[in-house]
Amino acid sequence: ISKGTAEKIVSSGVLPILAQVLRKKSPLTSQVTLLVAEMAREAAVRERCIEAGLVTALVPLLNSPDQDQLLHTGRAIGRICFENAVQQTQLVENGVIPRLVAIMQQYPENDPLVNVCLLALCNLADVDAAREALVEVGVAEVLTYQLKRAPDAERRHLILEVLGSLGESDALKLQFVEAGVPEALSEMIRTLQGGSDTHDLCSIKVASNLIVTLLLGDESMQKCFGEGTGMVYQDVLSWLQSANTELQLSGALAIANFARNDSNCVKMLDLGVVPRILDLLEQHVAEGDVSVQHAGLSALRNLAIPASNKVRMLEDGVTERIRTLLRSDMPPVQFKLLGTLRMMVDGQEEAASVLGKDEVLLARVMEWCEAKDHAGVRGEANRLLAALIRHSRNPEVIHTVIKADGVQHLISMATSEHVIMQNEALVALAIASAIDIEAVQEPFRDADLLPTLQKMLDDPVVAVEVKFSALGLICSLANSSMLREQITSLNLRDTLSKLSAHTSTKLAKQADTVMVVLSETA
């Protein structure tokens, strides 16, 4: 039916009569439904169809035992309600969701009919009530079956789109995993790999992204992991070695998702995942894909969270191998690299000592401490610098940091707007002064550490725990005669005596302790 013909039929006033015919079962029902479906191809007539009551007349016909009738009805409803949120919500309230799924269960081999039902689900998937209704009706099994028998790329894409929309629901995520959706997706990727057809490559990208999304649910992730023997986990590992960058990226993201609890991390290390991630990262060092590097580092960082893994990863030379990424000019990679190194040295004295004495590494970290345009990189660089001192407690590391001009950065970090960073900096400075006051007193004086601390203690906005750490640092600094002179000239005692009346008894007590220490060292 041409646009003009459709509009003429509508303006003749026949639509309400058609709706009446559909409500009464008659031999004409199938023909009238087909006519409505054809007219509704034209966007201009859809609103008039709704006003004439055609949608409410059509919905009961979804219970017909006649497959052709179902096909015409599905097409008519789908076209009339296309991109109409109000009508779509009403359809869901009128119970079309269970019918759509039931039709696909009854006639799974009827491709045109299955297609209409999938299109309808695709259009309704964003309606919250639709997702709730789908939880009750076993949609996962239907979609898995159809994915396995999808005859062409178009059908595949349609099913993937439905799975993608519905996979955002936690309840459906779990149902999908229990129905074997990740395995079906994995199998599909395996059959399509190696080709160059753009539709196939697109399917691979969407399907692998979908697996990553399904792994965001804790239960679904654990089920796919299967103690490291699950088919999905095995396939994900193979993606790391694929020539397809999209698969490499999804593989690294999936590994990071699997590495969300300690027992998985330990198991994955036993099964040798780390060398594969390192090989992948090294492929992308020069002119590589930033997203893949970022994801690979995220996976390594998560794997390094359990203490036993840190030790083993250090023994496997992880820090040496990821040092090659120091030359990266990409802020997202720099940010993740710094975070991964910080995780590797957390509680690891030896690792912190090795990295802290590495002048090339420190020179790069100093550059990043000054990253003007990237607060995230700047913050992570400063935190790594503080971590190297805090976890190594090594005089040589302190000397290397001083030589690299790191002191000024730690003092700036102490005045950051983030309490956690302020504390990390103050603790690092206190450790440095406790280990070698002779080496640090001059850089501390030149960088105005004491005036900075006094300002912090006088500032009513600074957090109590930060002031507490600052007082601990002043205690250490009092062991230097050069810095004691500065304490006197700044009249720091006045500041301390004000704090000894602070509402926090812990802080007041610490202020009193510092005054006693200053009297004893005077």
UniProtKB/TrEMBL annotation:
<dbReference type="GO" id="GO:0048513">
    <property type="term" value="P:animal organ development"/>
</dbReference>
<keyword id="KW-0963">Cytoplasm</keyword>
<dbReference type="InterPro" id="IPR000225">
    <property type="entry name" value="Armadillo"/>
</dbReference>
<dbReference type="InterPro" id="IPR011989">
    <property type="entry name" value="ARM-like"/>
</dbReference>
<keyword id="KW-0256">Endoplasmic reticulum</keyword>
<dbReference type="GO" id="GO:0005739">
    <property type="term" value="C:mitochondrion"/>
</dbReference>
<feature type="repeat" description="ARM">
    <location>
        <begin position="95"/>
        <end position="139"/>
    </location>
</feature>
<dbReference type="GO" id="GO:0005085">
    <property type="term" value="F:guanyl-nucleotide exchange factor activity"/>
</dbReference>
<protein>
    <submittedName>
        <fullName>Rap1 GTPase-GDP dissociation stimulator 1-like</fullName>
    </submittedName>
</protein>
<dbReference type="GO" id="GO:0005829">
    <property type="term" value="C:cytosol"/>
</dbReference>
<dbReference type="Pfam" id="PF00514">
    <property type="entry name" value="Arm"/>
</dbReference>
<dbReference type="InterPro" id="IPR040144">
    <property type="entry name" value="RAP1GDS1"/>
</dbReference>
<keyword id="KW-0496">Mitochondrion</keyword>
<dbReference type="GO" id="GO:0005783">
    <property type="term" value="C:endoplasmic reticulum"/>
</dbReference>
<dbReference type="InterPro" id="IPR016024">
    <property type="entry name" value="ARM-type_fold"/>
</dbReference>
